[in-house]
Structure formats: C-alpha cells, structure tokens
C-alpha cells in the first residue's frame, strides 16, 4: 500500500515532502559503473490522501547521479486535474545539516519542460508515465566531497508544491509617468550562484511570489532566467490564475516596465505592451495556475554589466533588485501642443527619455530605431478614418536635430486605420547608430524625441 507524503509549509505554499533512504549506495555505484545497474525506484507514494500517485527514480550515469519523478496510475486520478501542473524539487539531503544538494527544479507549466523535455510526463497516466528530472543532479565525486553518504546510505527528497496557504501579496500602488501604477519589487540574493546552478543544469529559472496588482485585480509573478541567452539574465512577467479573473478584461490590456537595479548603477528598464513582440497567448486569461507563456526581456541585464568594467574578475553583487511597474490607468491624457508653421497647423509632442546611458547602454554596436503608432482613443467615433496627416519624428538638442518624415507607403497595412487594439508601428528601424546617438544627441543623460503632425 503506497504511503502518503508528509505535509509541510514552504515558501507560502502547502507542500508534500517524501524522503527516500537508499542503502548500500557505494555497492550500487560499483554495480552501475560495471554496467550491471542502470536505475533504482523508490516506494510509491501519494502527494496527499486525495492526491497524485508518484515515484522517485535514480538513474546512474557515467559520472553523475540523475534524479527523476514520475506519475503512476492512482486511485484518485478520476477526480484530479490533468495535466499535472505542480512544480517540484528533487535533491540529495545532507544527513548532518538537513540541507539539500544537487537540487533539480521542474515546473510542468514551463513550455520548455511540459512541451519539450518532458512532453509525455504529465498527462493522466495509464500504468506509468515517463519520468522527468535531470541526468546530472550530482556527480559521484560530490557525494564523497560533500560527505552525503552516511552509514552506507544517501537520503533523497522530493518536494511537491500543492497550493498556497498564506494571504495573497499585493503590489504597491504608485503614481508614475502620468499613470496610476502597480509596482512590485523582488530582491534576488546571491545571483552568481544561481547563474552557476543554471549552467550546471541544476536550475531552470527562479520565480517571485505571486501578487495581485490591486484589490479585485490581475494576479501575476516575475520569472527570472539566470542565463536566458548566453551571458544575459532574462526577466519575464507571467500571468497567474487569480480569484477575480471572471470579472476582468481579457486579454490583459496594460503596458508594463521591467526593471533591474544593480548596486551603484542606474536601473535598467524595458517597457512591454500587449500585442507587440510577444505571443497573444501570453496575455489571455490563464486556464491553469500559470499562463502557458510569459512576456519580457531575454537580454534584461548582461553578466558583464553585473560584474562592472572595473570588476571583470571580481565577485558579482550579492543582491540584484528586480521590479515590474504596471501602468493601470492614465491620470490625465497628454495633449500635444499646437503651433502655426507658415500656414500649417502642427501638433508637436515631446518625449524625454531619461537614464539614457542605462537604458541604451546594452545595445553596443547596434542601430537605434524610432517608430510611431495610433492608439485607441476616447474620440475615435467622431474622427475621420483612415488617418491622413503627415508625421515626422526627430531627435532634438538645443543646437542639432535629426528629422525624418514617415512615408505612409512604407508602413504595414492597417497602420492608419482606426485602431481596435494595439496599433501597428511604423517608422525607422535604422535611424541612427548608438555611437552617434551618444556623441551628438544625449545631454544630461537624456534623449529628446519629438513627433510633429501636420493637421491642416
């Protein structure tokens, strides 16, 4: 009869914990290295009395120990949710201190896991599913170096995250950039070790706590990839299932800014708008605990930037603060200024991009683009469509300007039609080199960008 894993509270979640003692491990390692033993299976166990039936698996590789978890056909399957969506950790316990080593973290809702690496692991099982985990949880040498073998045995532990049990967290409401905004900050300590764990295959990502943007609002979290692309930390926003989803507007309509703050440096910011650069599914109402897709920036901050030019061979900062600011409601709609130029009435709007060095400094040896789009407005019913006015975009200083007129024939179809959602962008993808921008158009660490629209 399978036993039931022990319940515990961890990271604001009710978890199931199962410990597996593997005796005579040194003899088993000898058999494995002689090609006479490939794997071991734990006793079967339930995640709870009404939960999933599971089993741990050890696979012996050439030089390392692989840790896996698999689903088995159980008595409760007809009443459970499928596919299985509970994240879990697998680790080797230090019998002296109770801490874990060689942690394997798996989230079935991560598309790289549920759809690629372990695509056959989380559906309702017939007999048993394929196991999911890591082939390189811990090397054989580390078992001895870390003194994890005690009385001839090792202790393995599975932690399955079942559900939240503590009161929900909320973002802080602020007023920023003419918007009522929701801001959530997340301090990630010891990021260097997280990057190393990722490179060694022990860590796929880090998740913040889940939080609501406001009372009766959307619920989301931040997801950090210590090395999303080689040499870069990636930061993403993930919508999560919330208590008020049935009453909210979908797809998620709000723009948001992602931020990384490294000690002693200006914050790095990247702004994302639904409908631009991310799949639409990332903003749909989640039909499971986490949205299947996330949206953010794979090149949020370079490892080189974390080190700093003066500390290329030194330690990384101990803590990096990540944040998201979601722009919930515009307080006062900005209005362009009007002026006569000759006999033409022209509307002009200026955008001052602050902290230009931090926000553009990662784009080394790249060209800078500048684009424009129509957005849904409160007066669209009374306006004539398509939009027929000419538009110019410019970079300005007190003495120098770079002006370009938008050629509507070079714009995507629908750019000038009445918008029903996020508009089509049109402009100049290669307006200026980063070197020229920094040398000629940045003053007091700001860039002055202007749009001019001829109205008559």
From TrEMBL:
Coiled coil: none annotated. Transmembrane segments: none annotated. Residues 15-160 form the MATH domain. PROSITE patterns: MATH. InterPro entries: MATH/TRAF_dom (IPR002083), TRAF-like (IPR008974), TRAF1-6_MATH_dom (IPR049342). GO terms for biological process: regulation of canonical NF-kappaB signal transduction. PANTHER family: RECEPTOR-ASSOCIATED FACTOR, PUTATIVE-RELATED, TNF RECEPTOR ASSOCIATED FACTOR. This is MATH domain-containing protein.
């Amino acid at each position: 009869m399978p036993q039931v894993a022990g319940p515990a509270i961890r990271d604001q979640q009710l978890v199931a914990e199962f410990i597996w003692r593997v005796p005579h491990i040194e003899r088993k390692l000898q058999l494995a290295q002689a090609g006479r033993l490939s794997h071991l299976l734990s006793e079967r166990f339930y995640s709870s009395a009404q939960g999933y039936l599971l089993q741990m698996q050890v696979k012996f590789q050439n030089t390392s120990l692989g840790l896996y978890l698999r689903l088995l056909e159980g008595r409760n399957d007809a009443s459970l949710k499928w596919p299985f969506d509970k994240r879990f950790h697998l680790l080797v316990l230090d019998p002296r201190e109770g801490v874990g080593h060689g942690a394997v973290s798996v989230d079935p809702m991560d598309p790289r896991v549920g759809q690629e690496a372990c695509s056959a692991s989380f559906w309702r099982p017939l007999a048993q599913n394929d196991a999911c985990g890591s082939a390189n949880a811990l090397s054989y040498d580390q078992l001895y170096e870390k003194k994890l073998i005690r009385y001839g045995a090792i202790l393995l532990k599975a932690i399955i995250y079942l559900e939240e049990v503590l009161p929900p967290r909320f973002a802080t409401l602020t007023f920023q950039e003419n918007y009522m905004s929701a801001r959530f900050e997340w301090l990630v300590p010891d990021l260097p070790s997280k990057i190393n764990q990722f490179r060694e295959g022990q860590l796929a990502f880090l998740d913040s706590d889940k939080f609501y943007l406001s009372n009766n609002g959307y619920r989301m979290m931040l997801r950090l990839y210590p090395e999303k692309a080689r040499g870069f930390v990636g930061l993403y926003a993930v919508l999560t299932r919330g208590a008020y989803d049935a009453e909210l507007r979908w797809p998620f309509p709000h723009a948001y800014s992602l931020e990384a703050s490294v000690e002693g440096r200006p914050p790095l910011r990247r702004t994302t708008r639904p409908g631009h650069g991310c799949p639409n599914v990332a903003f749909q109402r989640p039909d499971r605990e986490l949205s299947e897709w996330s949206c953010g920036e794979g090149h949020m901050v370079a490892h080189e930037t974390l080190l700093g030019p003066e500390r290329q061979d030194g330690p990384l900062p101990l803590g990096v603060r990540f944040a998201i600011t979601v722009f919930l409601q515009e307080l006062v709609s900005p209005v362009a200024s009007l002026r006569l130029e000759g006999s033409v009435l022209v509307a002009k709007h200026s955008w001052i991009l602050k902290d230009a060095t931090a926000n553009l400094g990662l784009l080394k040896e790249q060209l800078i683009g500048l684009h424009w789009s129509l957005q849904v407005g409160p007066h669209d019913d009374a306006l004539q469509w398509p939009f027929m006015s000419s538009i110019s975009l410019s970079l300005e200083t007190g003495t120098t300007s770079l002006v370009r007129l938008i050629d509507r024939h070079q714009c995507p179809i629908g750019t000038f039609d009445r918008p029903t959602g996020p508009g089509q962008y049109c402009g100049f993808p290669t307006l200026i080199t980063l070197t020229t921008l920094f040398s000629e158009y940045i003053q007091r660490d700001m860039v002055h960008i202007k749009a001019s629209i001829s109205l008559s």
